[in-house]
Amino acid sequence: MHAYHTDIGIKKKTNQDALLIKTAKTPDGYVGLFVVCDGMGGLAHGELASATVVRGLSDWFENQLPELLHSEQLDADIREALEVCVKEQNEKILEYGGQSNIQIGTTLTALLIIQSTYFIVHIGDSRAYQIQQQVEKLTKDQTLVAREVERGNITEEQALQDPRRNVLLQCVGATKDLDVVILTGETSPGTLFLLCTDGFYHKITEDELLDELRPNQYLNEKQLKYKAIKLIDAVKERREVDNISVVLAHVV
Questions:
Q1: Are the beta carbons of 145 and 160 closer than 8 angstroms?
Q2: For the chain, which terminus, N or C, has the lower number of CB atoms within 10 Å?
Q3: Are the C-beta atoms of residues 159 and 150 closer than 8 Å to each other?
Q4: pLDDT digit string (tens) for 42-89?
């Protein structure tokens, strides 16, 4: 069960976020791929970067994943295939940027669920959360400010106001050397995964996420969609100026 919502926000002229939701039924159960990308670059170029990554992962899901599902070393093969796919998209964006003499890129946070196992691919500062009876942030922001907090140079509270908070340590399409972070874990029925761009989480608290999204067996897709819209509307009311996107995946 899943839902999504994206909004241009209150200031920008274009929405450079891109989302992907793909599910398929296999003899062994459902598989699902959920993606958020936050593109950056002048004019519409950020849209091109985020759309390139989404299209590449969509093709991978349709054309390569079915064969991988029969692998005897599924975990290792999925990890390797995802990394190769992301690096291919990185090359495409780099090549386009080089030819056009522009610098563009995109964050990437993707969730692949295969039966009771999940894989998360993460580059940049979009996020993945797991919500059960509490909210757990699964990804680590790849930003200058997050690194400063980790090193003890500034506090979490200072980081929220720091003018450098949008400075990324890496993104897809900006450099040839890409460190693709891939996380794995086990999931269980009732778990809710939330993927979002930074425009969403800057103005919302984990307590609010838990209040609205605490897994509940009575939630259906219509209700999930309503929750996504309600949360994004709250973020807009708090004067967030960025594009705002969220994807929800409820394991049933």
A1: no
A2: C
A3: no
A4: 655 788 899 999 999 999 999 999 989 888 899 999 999 999 999 999
b/e 48-64 (16+ beta carbons within 10 angstroms → b): bbbbbbbebbeebbeee
Say what the pLDDT of residue 87 is: 96
Query: What pLDDT, on a 0 to 100 scale, did the predictor assign at position 44?
Result: 58
**Residue 233: what residue type?**
D
When computed from its CA atoms, the radius of gyration of the chain, rounded to whole angstroms, is 18
Half-sphere exposure of 104 (CA within 13 A, CB side): 31
**CA 205-180-6 angle, 5° bins:** 40
Q: How far apart are CA 99 and CA 55, in angstroms?
A: 20
Distance CA 132, CA 113 (A): 16
Q: Which amino acid is at 240?
A: E
Can you read off the two tokens belonging to residue 150?
A: 């980790």
Read off the tokens for 58. 């969509």
- CA 68, CA 51: separation in Å to the nearest integer? 24
* Contact in structure between 106 and 49 (CB atoms under 8 Å): yes
Residue among 54, 84, 39 at smallest CA distance from 180: 84
CA dist., res. 160 & res. 69, Å (int):
41
| Residue 180: band (very low, low, confident or very high) from pLDDT cuts 50, 70, 90 | very high
Q: What's the gap between Cα 40 and its chain centre?
A: 15
